[in-house]
């Protein structure tokens, strides 16, 4: 196998599967599923006009924004820079999929979980800059709120993810190894009990942080329409708004996919149609639980959100990280 063919395989992995194209399609399908599920919870209909059962509605919305609508924003808003940073966030998130063992070509190395954390951090930075980079007060308020939450949920997500990977791949701290060859220490009952407890605690911390990172209830305060008129999205339109929607869906899809296959490590993630189908079943199962939990609660204030994240995300993630080194 030549270096050129390997590089080409990695490029296809990042751009097509399980990279950008796969994440966009799965993310927009997941948006339709979330909207239908929330509509059912709230006794509404949800999307129904474009495609069977409205399944193509998110695709039509994003297409219209990207290719039909035009950008209308404040005269002093650096919209080109904001769009570039949004596209960079999407590209960085897609690049992180090179560490997922779903395609024949993927990257695996000791400590690659830190590379994954580094790449996915760009998405959060892009969302914060989208709000803070506007001259309008409403996006600035939304960006400031998101930045305040980000200072808590990003360390919590990082530590809980490291704890999960440490339990499943203790020798390498490789997320690719944890997904493709998980090793749960069940030979020793005490170590196995600590490992299971660590996974539970890290999952709670990761899930709570993910609700804030994805701005799902009760942490949807950065875009609260009744308070800050849409928050960081208030001044976006056309392609800028379309890219921000894609960034949100791609980021959420990747994090839920990783969570589902770390929390339910059997069967392991590997290339092939059947393993991919099983991984998607786990993905939609976790997504369903996430959405039901999120929309069973109302929005909280910024100070309440920070206290909740500090208590149930940051503290638990520290406990999980310490416990993971005891397994």
The overall pLDDT, averaged over residues, is 90
Overall form: globular
Count of strand segments: 0
**SSE string, helices as H and strands as E:** HHHHHHHHHHHH
Share of β-strand residues? under 5%
Our count of helices gives 12
Low-confidence stretches: none
Oligomer: single chain
Structural class from helices and strands?
mainly alpha
Distance between the termini: 38 Å
- Rg (C-alpha, Å): 20 Å
Major sheet: size, sense and barrel closure?
A: none
Q: What's the helical proportion of residues?
A: 55-70%
Kindly give the count of domains.
1
Report on this model:
It is a single chain. The protein is globular and about 60 Å long. Helix content is 68%, strand content 0%. Helix 3 crosses helix 10, helix 4 packs parallel to helix 10 and helix 5 packs antiparallel against helix 6. The chain starts with a helix and ends with a helix. It has 327 residues and is mostly helical.
Short description:
The chain is mainly alpha-helical.
Task: Throw out a few tags for this protein.
327 residues; mainly alpha
Secondary structure topology:
Elements: H1 3-15, H2 20-41, H3 57-67, H4 79-95, H5 112-132, H6 137-168, H7 175-180, H8 189-213, H9 225-228, H10 238-263, H11 273-294, H12 302-324
